[in-house]
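Sorry, any thoughts here?
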Amino acid sequence: MITVLNSRKFLIFFTCFALLLSACDKKNEYIAPPPAEVTVSLPTPQSVTEYLEFTGTTASVGFAEVRAQVSGILKSMHFEPGVNVKQGDLLFIIDPAPYKADLAAAKADLVSAQAELNRTQAELKRADGLIKKNFISKTDHLQRQTDRDVALAAIGVKSAKVRSAEIQLSYTQVIAPITGRISRNKVDIGNLVGEGEATLLTSVTQYQPMYTYFHLNERDLLRIMQLRRKEFQAANLGPDKLLDKDLHIPLQLGLADEEGYPHQGELDFGESKLNTDTGTIELRGIFENTAKPPHLLPGLFTRLRLPISENSQALLISERALSADQSGRYVLVVNKENKVEKHPVITGQRLDGMVVIKQGIKAKDKIIVNGLQKARLGSVVNPQTAATAG
């Protein structure tokens, strides 16, 4: 009986031990993880305008220093510093008293000269009658003509002095030479100005419109000439018209703190030749600047771009798809076997979160745009199509 019980216990123990070993074997089996899920998108074919990009500096279309043109005591000021003024607005008055006196004296001299002319003309008329009767000599008659001519010349001199005195008097009223924003006064009321030099009183800067100056290098200039050669030949235009403002070539501008190029203008001027020292040609754009306060001020750093051609074959991808290493920029592509491949690319301009790929991909390539951190070169992935490339 004891033997039978021991046999049963041994059978039960052996069965449990076998089941335990079987369970342990199942836990040690390797189960491969599913392929990583990534989001892919086909490149977007799009007609894209190709731009050249530059940096430049803004400059006012008009700047004028307001200086005293006559000497005297500064009597009054007729503007608030920092406001907009119009051409011809009164800014300062310099003591006019001495110049009024000069004008009065000049007018008196003119009246005296006119009286002398009247006298000599009367004498000549009388001499004309006497010479016909041989009552005076030809010498006396000639003298009367000379006196009249001298008196007539004196009228011209005295009239010029009157005009000069009027001009000097007008200079005592200092007016705005251009329309624009006026600076502060450089001289206070009551000070002597214009003594020995044309004293700087203030300045006026014109903000509307605004220039921006930038430089085009020789390589880009030759490229523009090549791209536009057929267009120029068709329009029978010479190379001197390449940067002519009459072509209304659009130009876009952005400031350092702005996204993109929100300001629209056009090419206004191009130098006639390259600077041989720098290998560049200076260009100028012009932009409307009507906002209050103005968006553009003289001396600002600007980013500019100039359209040069349209590329109807451009392929664009999301900027998120771009990666870079020591060899340069690249994208990860899922091939027909759902394996990850690396494609080095050459990029072009960026446009609203997209980037132009000039070389390295094809129109039907599946570009990984999300899940790049899970994609390993050569590994199999589970590609999911994105709704859009962006």
Notes: The CA atoms of residues 67 and 200 lie 4 Å apart. The chain has a mean pLDDT of 86. The longest strand covers residues 44-67.
